Amino acid sequence: MRVVVVRSRFGGVLGEVAQGLAQAFGAPLHDADAADAPAADLAVLVGAGIEFDRALRGRWWRGRRPQVALWGFDPFPPPGLDQAEKARGERAGLRAGRARRLDSRLGHPFGGPGAGGRAKRWLRALTLRSRLSGQVQTHDLQTTVDPRLAVVTFERLLAVRAAVSRGAIDHVLVSSPASVRTLAEYGVHAHYEPVPRHDGFGARRDQVRDLPVLFVGMSRDRRGDRLRALAASLEGRGIPLTIVDRGLYGEARTALLNRARILVNLHKYPWHFERIRFSLAAANGALLVSEGPIADPAPMEPGVHLVAAPTTELPAVIESLLQAPARIEALAQQAAALYAAQDGFDAVARRLTALAGAAGAVR
């Protein structure tokens, strides 16, 4: 079976995941923005979803279309929304998709370099008009849905559902149990395929950990205010918070994480746990301290493999942990053992091959 792995234009950690999967398959990497579609029996798209627009719309392939699997890492809307909220979200998601495609026709791939202009202003306006708000019960987690984020997740949902409906995608894999439940509500069967163990995420080194607390991730989204408040509170306790919000990958990231005692996690989407951040912390010997509550943490267990606390309690929890280095070390070791026991990319490749083989037999 000829396999090709298609990576997102957004790169970053998802680019590393795509590379790891390609290596496991012994397959070439192909860019989502390439003019020509790859020739293959199975194409695996690794990313958020909407950046594979031509593949999702069935317009990329020439001649015989391969089986197509989407391995999505970004969240869909939270499960459990009522019908009125779903209807409002779908209307906003449709408008967002039209705005993004307009940006692409104008030569600005949505979310990519140079994105902006009329379509971006339309998107900003429609997200502010969205009425998705209030308390939503999803699994055992009650959370507030931010309408500006919910619109993007609905755009992604509609794109994937349409692609499955028209036969442009044969298999959907997602990295969050919440995404499996949401897609099922919309008639899309998805397989739960969590973030695998990956050598590229780093390894623990025997060195001094001179950074008490570290945050790695975007600070210009809805987490920014909470991150600044956390930094100010920790500073008042004499604890510096190191923030790196761009351009940290590979060896540089491994070196920095090995200097950190605690890696902080703040939720961008309350119903979607950032599992890649746990993997990065565990691989490099840092302890993940996360904003709580955490949706669907299994197999990670708060208090055993990581620490979770409400946002307002994080400064006190972090201060207490730093005063108990033996506890930090014990938790970090338990996290490292759990991470080491997780499947690697070889297992993911085998499962994808089995899915494609079973589908090919009845295609």
Brief account:
With 363 residues, this protein is α/β, with parallel strands linked by helices.
Characteristic key phrases:
13 strands; alpha/beta; 5-stranded parallel beta sheet; 16% strand; 6-stranded parallel beta sheet; 363 residues
Description:
Helix content is 43%, strand content 16%. It is an alpha/beta fold and 363 residues long. β1 (3-7), α1 (12-25) and β2 form a beta-alpha-beta unit. The chain contains 12 helices and 13 strands. It has helices at residues 12-25, 53-56, 83-105, 117-129, 147-165, 177-185, 224-236, 250-257, 275-283, 314-322, 325-341, 345-362, and strands at 3-7, 29-31, 42-47, 67-72, 135-138, 141-144, 171-174, 191-192, 211-216, 241-244, 260-265, 287-291, 307-309. It has a 6-stranded parallel beta sheet with strand order 2-1-3-4-7-8. α1 (12-25) packs across α12 (345-362), α3 packs antiparallel against α4 and α9 (275-283) packs across α11 (325-341).
